[in-house]
Amino acid sequence: MSVVIVVKVSEGLVLGADSAATIQGRVERPEGPQEGILKTYFNARKLLQIGDFPIGVLTWGTAFIGLRTIESLVREWEYEKYWQSQEDYETQYNQEDFQVKACAEGLCKHLSKVYAEEFGAQPDQQRPLTGIIVAGYSHKKFFPEIWRFVLPLDSDGKIHDQRPDLDGKPDFGAHWFGLTDAIVRLHFGRDERSIGIISEKFNIPHEEIHEILQPLQYQIPFAVMPLQDAIEYANYMLNVTVGRYRFVIGPELCGGQIEIAAITQNKFNWISRKTWSLGERGETE
Known about the structure:
By secondary structure, the chain is of the alpha+beta class. The protein has one domain: Glutamine Phosphoribosylpyrophosphate, subunit 1, domain 1 (4-Layer Sandwich). The protein has helices at residues 70-83, 86-93, 100-119, 181-188, 192-202, 206-213, 227-247; strands at 3-9, 12-17, 21-27, 34-41, 47-49, 55-61, 64-65, 68-69, 130-136, 145-151, 160-161, 173-178, 259-264, 267-272. A five-stranded antiparallel β-sheet has the order 12-1-2-13-14, covered by helices on one side.
């Protein structure tokens, strides 16, 4: 499970993610079968940079496809496209016309193939969801792009522009994906489950309830928000979710170190990033 966030402001783009990855399933044990969440890791990498480009990938939902992590599969696509040979590295990896949309389309094609091989025989409703955001700056573009796809793919099989321009002008704001109930409660002043409860009890259409609760939503001026404040906003929202899963009864589905990157026209800037180490349980002399 995961929580990830992307914030688009006029000065740049901020991507952030937690580090928890859970394994769900069923295993047979001497004392009886165990079913549900079997294991939780807190060092998954859900925020990745593509090469040296000002482009990042966020992933949420299932952290594994078969025996591979999502990070491993993303890196495989990156390797095959840019790193497979020295010649490719010189002629393709440094090409100036690299485009965010093309990156998203290529990654979607690669992951879709692996996903279909692993889950294609299962009914649609039983297939785990894997969400991907590819976001950043294309060559010679002043404003960033945000492209999204979710496996299994929609019926049209296409990637989607998460925040397209409005009337020819860039649209600024934030999106969050994964386990976001705590963020929705804070930001919109409601719980999505309450909409259904109220609708069923009082026979009020969902749209009308949303309109009634609209004044509870916090107003945030993303268009004029400095990039540093966007970084702090993303960190705050992610911590709200991590805290919710730390303290509320139930499995800790979000947690671990929060990773954040700020992307500008020509640079991918790591703000918070995990490093390999012996960890808390390691011993050194």
